[in-house]
């Protein structure tokens, strides 16, 4: 229930900010949102490498190249979904962005699958 209230409040804030912004400012804000997502994704990729190192240190075992690849794929997918994908693909979020200007929702929908 608390998360639903938080989502509603976020939507109202975005709509209020958009009401006093130019189309150019809104477009740039969406671009910057995607830049932040890319920045966070880079951090998550680094985190996965540290997770592998921690796993190997804790278990005293070195992963094979194949195991590292599978671990990296699974862990990165989980982190991406948890911290980016679940938000960028949320129907309410996309509906809100869709009201802000033409093509903005489609931009996010094109990027969303990378984080799912």
Question: What does this molecule look like?
Answer:
- The protein has 116 residues and is mainly α.
- It is built from five helices and no strands.
- It has helices spanning 2-19, 23-59, 65-88, 91-100, 104-111.
- It is elongated.
- 9% of the residues are buried.
Keywords:
116 residues; mainly alpha; 5 helices; 0% strand
Measured as a percent range, the helix fraction is over 70%
SS-based class: mainly alpha
* Beta-strand residue fraction: under 5%
- Sequence stretches where pLDDT stays below 50 over 5 or more residues: none
List the helices and strands and how they pair.
Elements: H1 2-19, H2 23-59, H3 65-88, H4 91-100, H5 104-111
Short description:
The chain has 116 residues and is mainly α. The chain has 5 helices and no strands.
């Amino acid at each position: 229930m608390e998360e639903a209230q938080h989502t509603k409040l976020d939507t109202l804030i975005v709509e209020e900010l958009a009401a006093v912004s130019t189309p150019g400012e809104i477009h740039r804000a969406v671009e910057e949102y995607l830049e932040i997502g890319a920045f966070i994704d880079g951090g998550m990729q680094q985190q996965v490498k540290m997770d592998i190192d921690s796993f190997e240190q804790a278990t005293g075992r070195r992963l094979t190249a194949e195991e590292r690849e599978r671990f990296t794929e699974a862990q990165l997918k989980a982190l991406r979904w948890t911290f980016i994908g679940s938000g960028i693909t949320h129907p309410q979020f996309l509906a809100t962005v869709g009201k802000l200007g033409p093509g903005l929702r489609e931009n996010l929908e094109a990027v969303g699958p990378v984080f799912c």
